[in-house]
Amino acid sequence: MLDESITVRLCTVEDLPALHAREAHPSARLAQKHFDRQTGGDYFYAIALREDEPVGTSVLDCRADNSLRPELKNLWVYPEFRRHGAARALTTFLEKRAGELGFVEVFLKVDPENEAAIPMYIGLDYSPTGDHALTAYEWVDETGQVNATEQRDAIYRKSLLAR
Predict the structure, then answer these.
(1) Under a CB-based contact definition with an 8 Å cutoff, are residues 160 and 98 in contact?
(2) Is this prediction's pTM over 0.70?
(3) What angle do CA 25, 28, 31 make, to 5 degrees?
(4) Does the first or last residue of the chain, that is N or C, have fewer Cβ atoms within 10 Å of its Cβ?
């Protein structure tokens, strides 16, 4: 079901309180970290909204030190807004930005065990490359402590030329 009232734009400082309020662990300040990276001009933090309510976020990482460039990452739609087109709206917005920057493809990494995400990405026209990457992640536990882990992710790509 596509919700026509979902809009996407780059995150602004005014969005941060609402995003922070939805974070599982407020001490993580993940929205703030993404927003701060955006100031470099090669990292784009997008927010999907229904009216003025955030429904999800995602990132396009075009930084030169990123081995997959550009990389779609941190796609997150709040559970109550899933299956309404927010993921498609976010990816379309960020893919358009990638094309405007001269990129002809977009990459993403996903846990091969993520049975919900893989069909979604395939439905968004991403294809597995057959390659994998070891990805370092930080996560915050129930006490608010930041932890680090590594995970072997599958790499997917989408051509921006086949539109």
Answers:
(1) yes
(2) yes
(3) 100
(4) N
- Phi/psi-derived region of residue 130, left when phi > 0, alpha when psi is between -120 and 50, beta in every other case: left
Q: State the Cα–Cα distance between residues 64 and 6, nearest whole angstrom.
A: 31
Q: Which residue's entry shows tokens 């995003």?
A: 19
112 contact partners, CB below 8 Å, separation of at least 6: 118, 132, 152, 153, 154
DSSP 3-state assignment of 87?
A: helix
Q: Please tell me the distance from the alpha carbon of residue 131 to that of residue 153, in angstroms, as a whole number.
A: 9
Query: Rounded to whole angstroms, how far apart are CA atoms 90 and 103?
Result: 17
**107 falls in which pLDDT band (50, 70, 90)?**
very high
pLDDT tens string 35-54: 999 988 999 999 999 988 99
Mean pLDDT of 78-96: 95
